Amino acid sequence: MNERATATKPQETGVVAAAVYQGGRKIADIEIDEAGDWAKREGHVVWIGLHEPSKALLERVGRQFALHQLAIEDAVKAHQFPKLEEYEHSIFIAARTAQLVDGHIAFGETHLFVGVGYVVSVRHGASSSYAQVRERCEARAERLSEGEDFIVYAILDFIVDNYFPVLDAINDEVEDIEDHVITTTMGRVEIEQLYTMRRDLLHLRNAVTPLADVCRRLERSDVVAIDPVMRPHFRDVRDHLRRVQERIDTMRETLAFAFEASLMNAQMQQTEISRRLAAWAAILAVPTAVAGIYGMNFEHMPELSWKYGYYVVLGATATICAYLYYRLRRAGWL
Fold first, then answer.
1. Is the pLDDT score of 2 beyond 50?
2. Helix (H, G, I), strand (E, B) or coil at 113
3. Beta-carbon neighbour count of residue 126 at 10 Å?
4. Which one has a higher pLDDT value, 291 or 122?
5. Res. 228: pLDDT tops 80
6. CA–CA separation, 131 vs 209, rounded Å?
7. Residue 300 and residue 52: Cα distance in Å, rounded?
8. Range 56-64, long-range pairs (CB < 8 A, 24+ positions)
9. d(CA 268, CA 291)
10. pTM score, two decimals?
11. What is the CATH number of domain 1-140?
12. Do 1-140 and 272-330 show the same overall fold?
């Protein structure tokens, strides 16, 4: 193999990129079946990027780097909780990715196989391409020369940075809800939207929290072969994750307050309507009572033969109703 070959080779289905680096500089695009030989060369690092690969392709990659069969099965299923698994000669990292699709958070997964001389990234579902991560790393040869540790850091940092645009978009919606929750009562559609946002934020938090534990292990573990020079970088990623957690918790509390405020607002409106109905019922009770009394058709009723009885009864009824209206309006019931 020519170590100075730089011509780009067409990649097979599922392979986004496969290249070998020496001293932080790309020296060749390679085939999957020759990756293992390159990785064994001292000072060389193989970086392979896969997107929703088949089981057969993953097994080929596994044979090149002697990957553990359990890790390969985890990468095939793509329904893993964020975690870090340590094997004899390698580590396996599972992380959750997130993107905003049609107003909802869509989740994907990224799996990383890391060992001496190689990094294999496997993307599933909603996730931004890591091509820009590769370009950014290749533009900083002095950093990429730190090897597979820096590649792992760059990918994890990219995953975490992509949480922030999702949170910014959701935060705008949360602020809109917060601005209108006092003045308007939420309808069924708004309540369903609020519930969906809280559920998505909970799922995002479930993806973020264990990833912080992964970074903590990369930062502190003596078992995982991470260069001490790189460990502060994983602490930086963990700090970003802490900010993500805090923003998620804040937005979930705001949405909970918005829901409670909407319920209180609805209850206040119902109470106000009940007061109005009770006030009008009290006013209408006066003419109803008078009409009921004079509708009994007793033969001996003194007012029946009185010349001004009709006008007096109407006037007294109107006066009482007007007085009740005045008092109830002053009390805020009307």
1. no
2. strand
3. 16
4. 122
5. no
6. 26
7. 98
8. 57/12, 57/13, 57/14, 57/15, 57/32, 58/122, 60/32, 60/33, 61/32, 61/35, 61/113, 61/120, 63/36, 64/32, 64/33, 64/35, 64/36, 64/39
9. 35
10. 0.76
11. 3.30.460.20
12. no
Residue 51 has pLDDT above 60, yes or no: yes
pLDDT of 306 strictly over 90: no
3-state secondary structure of 314: helix
Name the residue with tokens 């979930």.
252
> Cβ(251)–Cβ(163) under 8 Å?
no
- For β-strands 25-29 and 104-115, DSSP reports them as unpaired
Is 86 exposed, middle or buried (CB count within 10 Å of its CB: 0-12, 13-18, 19+)? middle
Q: Where are the alpha helices (DSSP H) in the chain?
A: 35-39, 55-65, 69-77, 131-138, 141-144, 148-161, 163-180, 188-220, 231-294, 309-330
Where do the structural domains in the chain lie, given as residue ranges? Answer: 1-140, 272-330
Token pair, residue 134, equals 């590769």
Place of tokens 């599933």: 124
Q: Which helix (H) or strand (E) holds 40?
A: none
249 Cβ neighbours under 8 A, 6+ residues apart = 205
CA distance 45 to 31: 14
Q: C-alpha 19: how far from its chain's center? A: 34
- Yes or no: say if 182 and 141 are a contact pair by the CB < 8 Å rule: no
pLDDT for the residue 226: 65
CATH architecture assigned to 272-330: Up-down Bundle (1.20)
What Cα–Cα distance (Å) separates residue 87 from each residue in 42, 90, 272?
Answer: 21, 5, 67
Q: Residues 180-199: pLDDT tens digits? A: 776 666 677 777 778 888 88
Q: Decide: helix, strand or coil at residue 94.
A: strand
